[in-house]
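We modelled the chain as a single entity of 223 amino acids. Its sequence is:
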Amino acid sequence: MRYFVYKTKNKINGMIYVGVHKTTDINDGYLGSGKFFQRALKKYGECNFEREILHECSSHEEAFKIETDIVNDDFVKDPNTYNFKVGGSGGNTLRGRKWFNNSTDEKYFHPGEEPAGWVKGRLESCSFNDSEKQRQRAAKVDRKKRSESLTKAWAEGRFNRDHTKCGTKGDNHPAKREEVKEKIRQKQLERSNEIVKCPHCGKEGKNSVGMISFHFEKCKWKK
């Protein structure tokens, strides 16, 4: 297994992404897995990115240590990078891992890296032996972590970048809330200016609470 720290560069706008990768084939074409970086891949296409290996390492720990030195707070805040968080913890660290157990405990391991005495699969007592339930639970946990990350990013003001549209559609975004409130106000205004007609006596008036509640319901011509 080979470990290395890499830099992927967008040949169109010059933006870069730095990460750690573990592989058996150093020419596997892997470019990166960051949230913003994946969006850039879809936008510009893989052909417009090039990867450069910065450091080859002997272990994940060594690679993460080097990544921590490179992807620091200043690097993340730089508008010319795709990195969303400081280095040293990896991206989707569960990717490619499977559940293993030793009859008393259970953990995630990459196949082939599990300790002696651990076998593949969940414990019989686990309530998530059903594969569909496992998938649903993993998706729920992932959404929670993603929500916490985005909330922190908003608090730190790290969404003022031209290369991302993230954060402009969430219900908790201030601009989104104001947009919804404005739409409600417009609908209320249109409704208040609408002319309605009493179904009992034929009197016309603006669509208001007074007209509906105090005339329609109490019209003397109402049967």
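As a brief sanity check on the tokenised model: Residues 161-169 have pLDDT under 50 and may be disordered. DSSP finds six helices and eight strands in the chain.
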